[in-house]
Every structure is written in C-alpha cells, then in structure tokens.
Amino acid sequence: MQKKTFYTELAYLFGLIILSLGAALMTIADLGLSMVVAPAYLLHLKISKFLPFFSFGMAEYAFQASLLLITVLVLRKFRVSFLFSFLTAVLYGLLLDLFIFLVGFIPHSHLAVQILLYAVGLIVTTAGVSLLFHTYISPEVYELFVKEVSAKFNLPMYKFKLVYDLVSCLVAILMSFAFFGFWQFEGVKIGTIVCAVLNGPLIGLFSKIFEKFFDFKDGLPLRPFFEGKQEQTDET
C-alpha cells in the first residue's frame, strides 16, 4: 500500500487543534487532568475566583511563560526559536478556551457521560500529541523544557520526562492543598492516574497507525531554524 504524504506543518496545525479539543473534553469531564497541565488548571481555578476572565487557556500560557524563563536560566542561553514554543502555548491556550466554551453545551452532569467524555478526550489528546511528535515546529514549553534540559545534562530524555511528570504531579497536589485545603482534591484525580498509565502506550499506538498510512514530509524549508541549526551557524 502506497503511503500518502502528510506535511509536517499540517501535522502541527491538526495536532494542536486535536490536542486542545481533547483537553477541553477532559476538563469538563472533571475526572482529572494529566499531571503536566494540572498545575496550570489549579492556577486557573484559584485566580479566576478573583479575576473571572482568567481562563484555563490564559493560565496555560502564563504558566508556560514562567517555565520558559526557568528553561533559559537553566540553559544559560536563549534562542529565538524558543519564542515559538511560547507562541505554540498561546495558540493552544486560545484553542483550549474556545473548545471548552463549545463543549460546555454538552450535558455532563451524569457520571456515565463524564466517563465517556474523559475517554474520548484521552484518545483525542494522545492522537494530537502523536501528530505533534511528527513535526519540527516548536512544541509547547513543557516538551521544550524536557528536551533541552535533558540534552544539556546528558540525561536520558524518557527518564527525565518521568521525573518531570512526577514533580508536576507533586506540585499539583501541593497547590491543591494550598489553594483548597486537604479536604478538597482538584486537578489530580483518578483520571490523572489513568492518564499517566495509558498516555505513553496510546501515543505509541497512534504513531504506528499514522506512520502506516502516511509519509511525513516537510512542506517548507524551515526545519533548520526551528532546530537551532541556522542560529548555531550564525553564531560561528
């Protein structure tokens, strides 16, 4: 079977749309989000009590802006391509708010509906992440931090990612306790555990499916810039 061409730039666009849709479905399901986004969600819950306009999407790119600053401080260097990770975070935040508004019209008070929305959201989210893995365009700051810091200190990326996820989970738990007390768990719930177990296998499964039917190719000559090769050449 001849594979069809799938341009990596479209993989970025579709991946971002699908990822934000899945996150919106998991948000309204209210069964727990992934460890990575839970801190931003808790930030949204707390600040929106005083500033109602402070949406989940805004909390996402505000939190990722702080993480980008930490990345620059740890690496002790800055590349213009880093800004595109923040741009990705902003685009993701805007799409997330849009989809949360749209899917909010779905009745979701019944537990069975919540479970269904969560399951669909998890599947859609992992499909979106898989597509983003097939593009060179800068990912969100979460992935940028893991990639760049693990490379700087010569650490296995998958092990550092595991540590980062666990730290994110701990931070979310502490934020939940600090914001809402020990009697109310927010952000980190049973769905967070399910997400931690199934995320990796599902992303791998979708990658195999996509690669079986599509041949991912660049449509534009921009890969050297996003990978920092052009900047390294300019520095020398």
Describe this structure in words.
Helix content is 71%, strand content 3%. It has one domain (4-228). Strands 1-2 form a two-stranded parallel ribbon. The mean pLDDT is 87. It is built from ten helices and two strands; from the N terminus they run E-H-H-H-H-H-H-H-H-E-H-H. The longest helix is centred in the C-terminal third of the chain and has 24 residues, at 157-180. Helix 2 (38-47) crosses helix 3 (56-75), helix 2 packs parallel to helix 7 and helix 6 (141-152) packs across helix 7 (157-180). It is globular. It has helices at residues 8-29, 38-47, 56-75, 82-103, 111-132, 141-152, 157-180, 190-213, 223-226, 229-235, and strands at 4-7, 214-217. It is mainly alpha-helical and 236 residues long.
Taking all residues together, what is the mean pLDDT? 87
From the spread of the alpha carbons, the general shape counts as: globular
C-alpha Rg (nearest Å): 18 Å
Number of E-type strands: 2
The description of the largest β-sheet is: 2 strands, parallel
Proportion in helices: over 70%
Q: Separation of termini?
A: 45 Å
Low-confidence stretches: none
The total tally of domains equals 1
What's the helix count?
Answer: 10
Helix/strand/pairing category: mainly alpha
Order of helices and strands: EHHHHHHHHEHH
Write out the strand line-up for the largest beta sheet, numbering strands in chain order.
1-2
